[in-house]
Amino acid sequence: MADLEKTLSDIAKAIVDDKDAVSIIKTEDGNNVTLQLSVAPDDMGKVIGRHGKIAKAIRMVLKAAANKSGLKVTVEIK
Asked: Residue 70: left if φ>0, alpha if ψ -120 to 50, beta else—which one?
């Protein structure tokens, strides 16, 4: 089973400057998993990207990882 929190954390820490400010809150409801990613305000643009391209890519990678485990994942960036 894929560790979705660790995967998201690794991706976010590779992108941002302030790695200590990365935090993830996980909530589960059956097969649905919601991950809330919080980063420093200065790094928010790096995580979202132009027109949301980086955020879409992060969501796509996590959905692929969750699909192998039979889960549905939602990533919220705050």
From this structure: left
- Model confidence at 22, in pLDDT bands (50, 70, 90)? very high
- Looking at the predicted structure, is the pLDDT value of residue 62 above 60? yes
- DSSP helix/strand/coil, 23: strand
Q: Which of 24, 17, 6 minimizes the C-alpha distance to 44?
A: 17
In the CATH scheme, what is the code of domain 4-77? 3.30.300.20
Can you read off the two tokens belonging to residue 53?
Answer: 């391209």
Q: What is the pTM of this model?
A: 0.92
In this structure, what are the phi and psi dihedrals at residue 58, rounded to the nearest 5 degrees?
-60, -45
Domain boundaries, the chain: 4-77
d(CA 29, CA 38) in angstroms, rounded, equals 21
